[in-house]
């Protein structure tokens, strides 16, 4: 795994009612910023044209305990639960994380390369970390997701479309078939597509 550079401090949170732009150096105004050390630069001229949707809960099926945030910031107590022994020392991150209640967290600037995809291939390109934005949904692989999560996800995807040349959305299962299975059968792709179509932005959902 490539070594992390020093974590870049995110800008001070912007006032959602202010006239400031939605994006500042890759940080989204409506997300709660918590900088992860697990990131690096994207390859020069990499087109940021893919959104990858994941699901995560730590331990699996347990929500709202802060463990996902701790994992992405290398602060997870590996001895706190037997499940954590199987991922001890793991250094990963995602650009965004959406809780069951729809709260949005951001760990890495969307301009930078987060460590969410792992070995992967999509659109004829390998190493999807290079040119994708990772969004983790708090949930169990194959399980159902909550209405507030879909609402936050649709708003975030629409905002990403405004800021980046997004052309595809895929699940982790689509870019690493056989190795990964999230978000799984419980994720409603049609609902996401319908929500994005309602924004009248012509979002090109391709999976």
How would you describe this structure to a colleague?
With 207 residues, the protein is an alpha/beta fold. The protein has one domain: Peptidoglycan recognition protein-like (Lysozyme-like, 3-Layer(aba) Sandwich), CATH 3.40.80. It has helices at 67-72, 147-163, 172-175, 189-197; strands at 23-24, 27-28, 32-33, 39-40, 50-56, 96-98, 104-106, 113-114, 121-122, 125-126, 132-138, 168-171. The strands form four sheets. A six-stranded mixed beta sheet has the order 3-7-6-11-5-12. A hairpin with a 2-residue loop joins β9 and β10. The radius of gyration is 16 Å and the shape is globular.
Indicate the topology.
Layout: E1 23-24, E2 27-28, E3 32-33, E4 39-40, E5 50-56, H1 67-72, E6 96-98, E7 104-106, E8 113-114, E9 121-122, E10 125-126, E11 132-138, H2 147-163, E12 168-171, H3 172-175, H4 189-197
Parallel strand pairs: 3-7, 5-11, 5-12, 6-11
Antiparallel strand pairs: 1-2, 4-8, 6-7, 9-10
């Amino acid at each position: 795994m490539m070594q992390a550079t020093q974590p870049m401090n995110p800008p001070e949170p912007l006032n959602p009612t202010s006239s400031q732009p939605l994006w500042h150096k890759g940080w989204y105004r409506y997300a709660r910023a918590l900088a992860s050390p697990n990131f690096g630069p994207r390859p020069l001229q990499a087109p940021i044209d893919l959104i990858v949707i994941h699901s995560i809960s730590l331990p699996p099926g347990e929500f709202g305990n802060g463990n996902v945030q701790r994992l992405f910031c290398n602060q997870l107590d590996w001895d706190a639960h037997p499940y954590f022994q199987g991922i001890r020392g793991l250094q990963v991150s995602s650009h965004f994380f959406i809780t069951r209640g729809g709260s949005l967290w951001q760990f890495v600037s969307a301009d930078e390369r987060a460590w969410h995809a792992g070995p992967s291939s999509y659109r004829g390109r390998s190493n999807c970390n290079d040119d994708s934005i990772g969004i983790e949904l708090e949930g169990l692989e194959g399980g159902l997701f909550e209405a507030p999560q879909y609402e936050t996800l649709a708003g975030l995807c629409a905002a990403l479309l405004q800021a980046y040349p997004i052309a595809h959305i895929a699940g982790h299962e689509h870019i690493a078939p056989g190795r990964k299975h999230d978000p799984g059968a419980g994720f409603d792709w049609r609902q996401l597509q319908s929500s994005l179509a309602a924004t009248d932005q012509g979002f090109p959902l391709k999976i």
